[in-house]
Write a structure and sequence with these properties.
This protein is mostly helical. 70% of the residues lie in helices and 2% in strands. A two-stranded antiparallel sheet has the order 1-2.
């Protein structure tokens, strides 16, 4: 069940995407928002504070808040990603940029995992792949979680703390997207094929093949998002 402040976050983002609020404009007063949303002013205030932390609004003490330009909105808050994409004029811009970031990080971490990954980390990659195989037709939520853990284990296996730190902020966003994509059986099958090729290359120490397998997987993921879900991947 959503907290009241989360309902408020969703309601304000809806006001933005349907054109009732525009960047640079002052927000309605807390009292007016409380009336519109059917909640207390305290819940409204908490919603605005959450949106301020994500760069969507600027809270001004003693004055009405302001809706910020889309360029200031956090690209790492799954709640605002869809609205950000819609407001940018290209709903696929955000998922495309996310895959570009993953490609830059994960192709290299996979190569490093193949080159020097500790046995215990490679074993964990294999274990998560096994869970994906076991749940592909029975539990897509468990499948998607194992998918995420597979990638996280590969990043750890790279042994590079800077690449791991760059990857960490993406994990919450990836969780939202993977839950959506894994709901489709054909996408799960393609994902399992790619993950199997990645694991086998890493296990065998084939550095170039491992990087190429991850690059192919990133391309497949972007195609799946664009062709099957579009901006709905972030809903």
């Amino acid at each position: 069940m959503q907290r009241r402040s989360e309902v408020g976050v969703d309601a304000l983002l809806e006001m933005v995407t349907d054109g009732r609020l525009k960047p640079g404009e002052p927000l309605p007063s807390e009292a007016e928002l409380a009336r519109q949303w059917g909640m207390s002013r305290l819940s409204v205030r908490e919603a605005l504070q959450e949106l301020a932390r994500s760069g969507v609004v600027t809270v001004r003490h003693g004055k009405r808040g302001l809706l910020n330009d889309v360029g200031k909105w956090s690209p790492l808050d799954p709640r605002v990603l869809q609205a950000r994409g819609l407001m940018s004029g290209d709903p696929l811009d955000v998922p495309r940029q996310m895959i570009e970031a993953r490609r830059a990080i994960e192709v290299e971490t996979t190569r490093l995992a193949a080159e020097r990954g500790p046995a215990e980390d490679i074993d964990e990659v294999e274990r998560q792949l096994g869970i994906m195989r076991e749940t592909i037709d029975t539990d897509y939520a468990a499948f998607s979680q194992a998918d995420l853990e597979f990638h996280a284990a590969l990043v750890r296996a790279s042994g590079n703390v800077y690449l791991a730190s760059a990857y960490a902020p993406l994990e919450e966003v990836l969780h939202v997207v993977r839950i959506r994509t894994s709901a489709q059986a054909d996408i799960r099958r393609r994902a399992l094929e790619h993950h199997t090729r990645i694991f086998e290359a890493v296990r065998d120490g084939r550095v170039q093949d491992a990087g190429e397998a991850m690059l192919s997987h990133m391309d497949q993921t972007l195609d799946d998002v664009i062709n099957n879900l579009g901006a709905a991947a972030f809903r």
